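Margin note: ligand = nicotinamide-adenine-dinucleotide.
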Amino acid sequence: MNAPSTILVTGGAGFIGSHACAELLDHGYELIVVDNYSNSTPQVFARVERIAGRFVGTVYELDIRDRHALSAVFDRHSVDAVVHFAALKAVGESTRMPVEYYDTNVGGTTTLLRAMHEHGVRHLVFSSSCSLYGDGDGGPLSEGAPVRPTNPYAASKAACEKILADVCRRVPGFTVLSLRYFNPVGAHPSGLLGEEPCGTPDNLMPYLAQVAIGKLDRLHVFGDDWATPDGTAVRDYLHVMDTVEAHRIALEHLGDSPGMHEYNLGVGKGSSVLEVAAAFGEACGRPIPYDIAPRRPGDVRELVADATAVARDWGWRPTRNLADMCRDAWRFQRLNPSGHAGSARQADRKK
Ligand code: NAD
Ligand code: WQD
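Resulting structure:
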């Protein structure tokens, strides 16, 4: 089957969504984008257009929980498939605002499913998360590992997967490719798109970028007493460009076999906090100052993907390494002191 050509992208203004829009436009897809800008800005689309050299498509400011608004989008456009990024994603915040997380992530997904059903759209690529594996089991995690969420964010993703599997069982031809990302980081190599957290970053890579630029004083390494080679926790960092290439390839596989299919997206190799900090120091040209702080509540020792299934089924393998991730994250930080809303300093158009 040919890959679908008109794609509805939810959350297309966000970190991964904006990179995905650039990638899909570059490969000839027509896009319809919806976002409520709760964690992003519409200014990102001018940058996506600069990269792609074409219009992004029709963009709607709407909340995916707004059933009528979403249904009207499907009325107006003939959508072949949906790539569903829109969600709330901060683990710590989810413990303080669980209802908001379930409402947006689960309620948003059921509203989307309703609109898809009413309009006969049966192909979905879903943003899932390694966080649903909970503490993991110490080794590389395959898709068959137990789903044991330990916070409302992760539980919301697990609930979505359960709902999606039920829909696939019930609706003939319905296909969901649920991509369980490990730790997507980095930025577009043009310096035009990147990760722009609100306030002080929770996540390691944007925190390092702000230390490197001097906005933050030093990195606080959350624990050096884990049972790992250097005592700091290990994660599977994946370049956002590899992440979105996997989505483009997923679209080409939506017609392979109906039903629900889960895939890990990771490199399959872990890096410790100190290894990432050292790699960032190399990228920005000076060592990153750090101190050792207590473990962060809820953190786990190691989360690394067994990413062999996606390589086997689709031939997708990440091609960028930790140095590439740090170089690109640093370029975005350096060129965009005011984030996507400002004008990028000397960012170039080529990828
Ligand atoms: P992001 O916050 O940058 O992007 C999400 C986008 O969705 C934002 O533009 C936001 O404004 C929009 N949005 C949120 N709620 C909405 C609503 N109710 N209606 C319409 N739009 C809404 O996050 P991201 O890092 O790009 O993550 C994208 C997806 O990938 C999310 O589903 C997230 O849970 C998942 N994910 C992210 C990571 C990661 O580390 N970044 C890891 C695993 C999974
Ligand atoms: C990485 C490592 C920290 C900040 C999160 C979500 C997960 C998924 C990916 C969405 C950890 C350490 C961090 C700092 C530190 N997102 N660290 N100092 O926690 O692996 O995963 O993003 O689905 O659900 O939980 O990513 O970048 O926050 O942390 O030492 O200032 O860096 O302890 O070991 P995490 P992270």
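The first helix runs from residue 15 to 26.
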